[in-house]
Each structure stands twice: as C-alpha cells, then as structure tokens.
Amino acid sequence: MDFRDLLKQISNKPAEQEIVEEDPLDEFPPEELVLNQPINSLPEQSFTNLLRPSEPAVEPILSSNNSVIPTKEQDFFAPPSNLKETGINQIALQDLLLKCLFYQSSATGKELAQKIRLPLHSIIDPLLMKLSEEKFLEVMGSTGLGGHNKMYRLTSAGYKRAEEVLKVSNYVGPAPVSLEDYVLAVSKYKTLDFTEDELRAAYKDLILSESAVEQIGPAIIAGKSIFVYGPPGTGKTSIAERITRCYGDSIMIPYAVNIQGIPVRFFDFFLHQATDKSVVPGVYPAIDAAKDARWIEIQRPCIVVGPEFTVASSDLQYDPSGPSYQFPSTIKANGGVFVVDDFGRQKENPEILLNRWIIPLEKETDILNLKTGQQVSIPFRVFTVFSTNLDPKQLVDDAFLRRLAYKIKVDYPSLETYCQIFANEADKANINWSDEVLDYFIQKYYFKASRPLRACDPRDVLAKVIDKCRFKRIKPPFELTKELVDYACNSYFVTY
C-alpha cells in the first residue's frame, strides 16, 4: 500500500465523538443553548436543520443518584427547573440571597441553594451571576472544584441593598411559593371520607359510648363546623383533637408564601408536625432532588386555642420589630382541625367572634389584611370546632347556633363507662388494681362526696399515684392501694 492509499483510508474514517462529562450537581439542563459560532459560518445543511429541526427524543432528567426527576406537568410538587416555575420574580429571589449573605457574611453557591431550598445550577447560579454583574456580590475564592464551590460575599453596594430590603421584611429562609400555587395546593387536599370502622380506629384510645359514636361520625364526615358542649372534664377537647386521624393521610404545606411581594411565614415548628421525625426547630429536612424543597410534608394539623384567642389573632400577624409577617393560626390549620377551646371565656364577646367566622365557614375563604391596608383572599379549608362548658344559650342566640352545622353534647360518663376508662388508663400507666380499691375510690370520692364522674379523672388521679411511687423509688408495675388513692385524691380534688 502506497502513501496515497493510506491517506484515503484515514480521510474516510469517521471522527471519534467527543465525550462531555456532565456535572452530577446540575440536575436540570439549561433552557437555551448559546451558540458562539456566527450563524453565517454554519454549513447550509446545518442552517436548514435549525429552521426545521427534527423531533428530538425526549430523555428523562436524572438527579445525581440517577433517579428520574419529574416535571411540573407530571407532579405539582416537582422541583422548579427554571425561574418562571418558581412563581416568584427574580428581584425577590435576589433580595433573599442578599439577606442570607447579610447575616452569614460569606457562603458558597451550594450553601445558599440549601438555605433557600432551590436548585443550584438552574436557578441559584444564574441569580448569583446576575448579582455579581450588578456589583452586589464578589467572589472571594473557592472551597473546591466546580462553580458551586465559589465563595461569595456582599460588596458595599450589596450591604446597602440588603439593609433596604430588611426594612421591608427580615425573613430569611426557604424561598416562598406563590399565592397561586398555595391556593392550588389546598384545592388538592383530600376531603373527609371514612367508614365506621375507621372512625372507631381513630378513637380507639378513648372509651366512647355507642350513642357518642353515632353522634360524632356523621358530624365529622359532613366536614362542617361542630359546636361541642357539656360539663368540664368530659373529653370534649380529646374528641376534637382526634378528628385529624379520620383523614388518614398527610399534606404538603409551604415554608412561606409570597403575598404582595412580601414573604409570609407559614410552616410553624411548634404547631405543625413534620412526617420526617428528624425535623426539629431550626433544622430543615434533607433536600429530595425529586421534590420542590420549598414545601414540607406534615401530618394533618390540629391547632387548639383558648381564652387568649381574639379577632385580631385571626388576621396576618405583623411583627414591627422584624419587620416580618406570619399567617394566623386559623390559616395554619388549613387541611386540618382548628379548635376554639373554652369558647365563651375569651376577652371578646362570643357573638363578635362568631361574626368573624360566619363568612369563612360558609365560603371556605378568608380575607386577610396587610399593614399597608391591602387585602388578600386565602383558602379556609379548616374543620372548625367550638368547645365550651358553659350554657350555649347564655353565649349566643339560636340564630347564631343555627349557623354551626352540628351541636354535640358530651355529658358525664355512666358508671360502666367510667370503670372502663379507669381500667384503660391503669393499663397504660402499668398500674395493678383490684375491684376492692376501685370500689373504695368511687364510693368515697364520688358517691359520698356528691361529685359527678368525669372522664378525665382516672388519668389525672393515676398520674399522681405514679408521682408518689417514683418519689418513693418504687419500680413498676405499681400496686394501687387505698393509701395511694387517698394521697392522690387529696391533692387532686378541692375540698371545702
């Protein structure tokens, strides 16, 4: 073979395809490709293909652990792949990054992405680049390979801008979701639907009479408001708190919602219980690349308020020292149960409180007010329970009571039910007891004292028995004696 034949073979050999290694942290491809090559330098065939591109094969987007990341069309709670899908404008997100750096001094792009819980490469990196171009940020260096390890800090212009936005809101944390997205999320919450067996399972730790079950079941499944009344200590609050068990699922709520350009805190470490048990105040759950990390999964909330509740506390809560906003407990209960306990003992007249609730209860929508006077409509998908031990007729007139869908009276338990409650509480407390001691307890402290049997008494009296045994260094199982009964009752019941 001569030299010319060898050249011909080499020229006919196909060129090897260049292998480009993908950054595993870049979970989303860029929206647009920037072609640096002038368009007039492209071959004619390439230009034709640009005008009439062939249909490309759709490849699934993979996270760094090779799991498929859904799109927003496939899953409402999928992570946003671009700025538009966040529902928040660019300036608001840039200001949030500036506030993070104001308090943190310096941080990498990866740390900032974890702080505000948005994808690094598709959203945070472009925002940081824009802030750098506008001289609000400067790059100090890098903590490792890759753009996500660049260390950023504020410039003097960045500090000035951060101070300005902090005067409007000092919120720093996960990026808010749009109000429109929150409204849509609430509309997806499952409505109450359960069987009688499921109801009994939800209340299995309470001893309820058959008549109570027949009353409670239809009232709860109706999904309307309930007015629960009866003497104190009969279990009204306990019945209300267990309604959330009837839903049988969890819900997604946002850390914050953007209202009129202001982040308003929603998730509450003390009122909401995350399904992830590792979540404690100040510690957020690990970011799942397949989910929008601005939302957190919680158990259906049950929020109980008492005499401290006022009309003002059902509006947006503004803290001028921040300044900052957070949602009222009434809205934080969305998707769950809100209990107004000791109704009638609040500072404000009961009719004033009920007047505040008439429209939200009927329309499932509430109107909240900003300090500026602007108003916002918010979903009110809350199962509301009013609980009182006062005479209902002394609280409000019949016209008001008619607006509350169900009225349920919870009375003192019968002797048989009381004994079942006592046995149940003793079993949970690991206390052994005899019929003789139980008879002594009931005869002396109820019948002879003309005291009604209350459902809460066995739990509270036996708790004092345990305290006494612990003090005396007695180990469980404990033995209930007449002497222990006397000790517990003398410190529990008030005698005159």
Provide the descriptors you would attach to this structure in a database record.
496 residues, alpha/beta, Rossmann fold, five-stranded mixed sheet, five-stranded parallel sheet, 19 strands, elongated
Number of helices: 19
The secondary-structure class comes to alpha/beta
Which percent band covers the strand fraction? Answer: 15-25%
State the CATH architecture of the largest domain.
3-Layer(aba) Sandwich
Alpha carbon gap, first and last residue: 122 Å
For the CA atoms, what is the radius of gyration? 32 Å
Anisotropy-based shape = elongated
Give the uncertain stretches in residue-range form. 13-60
Identify the CATH homologous superfamily of the largest domain: P-loop containing nucleotide triphosphate hydrolases
Helix fraction, binned, reads 25-40%
Arithmetic mean of pLDDT: 86
CATH classification class of the largest domain: Alpha Beta
CATH third-level topology of the largest domain: Rossmann fold
Major sheet summary line: 5 strands, mixed
Q: Trace the largest sheet across and list its strands.
A: 4-7-8-12-11
